[in-house]
């Protein structure tokens, strides 16, 4: 029996538009390798162009929860064996691979992330790089649609829907030397300046190619990571990998901005909406170089949190370091999370309520020549050092149309006068050019590699 489900569009917390596509219940596709069938999950496609009109960044958990009752439950119940009501609907959420922009930039935070850099193998050049990007794009498109990988599925994502999987590709500075495309290398990819507080491990930085994988299911994310790595074949080798996480969708009673491992609400003042993104996050459609139209530049920093020191501070002192309350992210000058900070407000002794070196003050666009970045972080925890110090912190991923007008001025200022800097350590760094999204039939980076 084929059941037609209605189109459901819902606005989450006034920020995210979600298009829930009408799904006709077809028999599940046959897995070409095993001959078995994948379960037919109803698929909910997010913002078809790659950027929904408004995104709810930092709120892992918002949509599955809001839409569960409306759309997915009926779909899953009908699809599940024996009409069992599923626990959640997050498996059916899907991000588009094709579109103006690559997914994974303005997409909601996912609960699981893998960041990887690859180096092209000795002897591999432009031709091999083009073939690799063609393979990777085809694989990403299939996996993001919830389909098994072509030519050697490893079954790890079996039973799950796409779970908001995104696979995002970028090129590092060295990629252009390796492929003979130096003349196409954007100035924006010039190496970042050194910062006095940098303690960078070069082996865990940069690289020819960068891949960001995010999903709301750990196995779906692992599956994509493993398939992408196998797909590289002899053309490229993993240079470094970092694994991160965020809160699981639905863990909080209502949609909330994410918390980091210092316990702070983090992401409040991210740019939101088309206008903000187009001004500060994406290279304009007529921008330079041509092949970067609708692309973006990503800076990644592995930032260790010195949690043993941080956790010794009283809550009050922790709040002064940031300038915001831990409980709800509101400024110390009062109000709610989104209330504007009263930057000049003083207490009875005449001291600024939000200290002069508070992180939320020093990082503001109006203190940094208007520099605006889109922060889309994952937390990480890679165990403990021998002395018991946690190796945990933030995989800081920030997006901008030009790093010299985004990350660089903000980090320069933080480097000089941020109260947070004595509780963190930047341990790895990378900068990559992330091209615009691929049109149907195209692969990511085709405009560069076939120009
Ligand atoms: C170079 C850019 C930045 C780095 C590196 C960075 C590290 C970092 N930040 C936090 C926690 C918070 N950051 C907050 C705001 C904030 N941070 C940056 C930039 C960097 N942060 C910006 C541009 C902003 C927004 C400024 C504004 O427009 O007002 C906040 C407050 C809440 C929020 O707005 O998101 C917190 C909390 C940590 C823990 C950290 C390194 C580990
Ligand atoms: Fe910050």
Automatic annotation (TrEMBL):
Residues 257-438 form the Dyp-type peroxidase C-terminal domain. It comes from the Bacteria. Residues 102-246 form the Dyp-type peroxidase N-terminal domain. Its EC number is 1.11.1.-. Residues 24-47 are annotated as: Disordered. The keyword Repeat does not apply. Keywords: Heme, Iron, Lyase, Metal-binding, Oxidoreductase, Peroxidase, Signal. Its cofactor is heme b. It is found in: Cell envelope. It catalyses: heme b + 2 H(+) = protoporphyrin IX + Fe(2+). Binds 1 heme b (iron(II)-protoporphyrin IX) group non-covalently per subunit. Involved in the recovery of exogenous heme iron. Extracts iron from heme while preserving the protoporphyrin ring intact. Belongs to the DyP-type peroxidase family. This is Deferrochelatase. The gene is efeB.
């Amino acid at each position: 029996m084929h059941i037609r489900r209605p189109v459901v569009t819902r606005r989450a917390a006034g920020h995210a538009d979600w298009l829930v596509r009408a799904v006709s219940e077809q028999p599940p596709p046959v897995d070409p390798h095993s001959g078995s069938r994948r379960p037919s999950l109803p698929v909910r496609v997010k913002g078809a162009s790659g950027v929904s009109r408004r995104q709810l960044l930092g709120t892992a958990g918002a949509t599955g929860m809001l839409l569960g009752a409306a759309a997915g439950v009926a779909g899953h119940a009908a699809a599940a064996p024996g009409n069992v009501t599923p626990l959640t609907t997050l498996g059916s959420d899907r991000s588009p691979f094709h579109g103006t922009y690559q997914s994974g930039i303005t997409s909601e935070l996912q609960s699981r992330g893998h960041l990887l850099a690859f180096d092209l193998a000795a002897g591999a050049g432009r031709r091999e790089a083009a073939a690799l990007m063609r393979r990777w794009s085809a694989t990403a498109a299939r996996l993001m649609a919830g389909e098994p990988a072509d030519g050697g599925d490893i079954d790890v994502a079996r039973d799950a829907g796409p779970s908001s999987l995104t696979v995002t590709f970028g090129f590092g500075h060295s990629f252009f030397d390796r492929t003979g495309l130096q003349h196409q290398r954007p100035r924006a990819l010039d190496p970042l300046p050194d910062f006095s507080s940098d303690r960078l491990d070069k082996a865990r930085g940069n690289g020819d190619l960068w891949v960001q994988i995010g999903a709301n299911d750990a196995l779906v994310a692992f599956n994509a990571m493993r398939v992408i790595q196998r797909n590289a074949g002899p053309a490229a080798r993993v240079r470094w990998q970092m694994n991160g996480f965020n809160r699981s969708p639905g863990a909080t009673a209502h949609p909330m901005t994410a918390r980091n491992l210092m316990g702070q609400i983090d992401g409040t003042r991210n740019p939101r909406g088309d206008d903000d993104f187009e001004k500060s996050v994406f290279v304009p459609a007529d921008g330079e170089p041509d092949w970067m139209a609708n692309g973006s530049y990503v800076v990644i920093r592995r930032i260790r949190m010195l949690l043993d020191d941080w956790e010794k501070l009283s809550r009050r002192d922790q709040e002064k370091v940031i300038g915001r309350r831990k409980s709800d992210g509101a400024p110390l000058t009062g109000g709610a999370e989104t209330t504007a900070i009263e930057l000049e407000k003083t207490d009875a002794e005449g001291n600024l309520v939000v200290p002069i070196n508070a992180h939320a003050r020093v990082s503001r666009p109006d203190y940094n020549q208007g520099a605006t970045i889109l922060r889309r972080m994952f937390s990480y925890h890679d165990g403990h050092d021998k002395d018991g110090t946690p190796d945990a912190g933030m995989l800081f991923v920030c997006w901008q149309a030009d790093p010299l007008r985004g990350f660089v001025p903000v980090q320069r200022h933080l480097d000089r006068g941020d109260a947070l800097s004595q509780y963190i350590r930047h341990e790895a760094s990378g900068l990559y050019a992330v091209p615009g999204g691929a049109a149907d039939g195209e692969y990511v980076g085709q405009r560069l590699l076939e120009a």
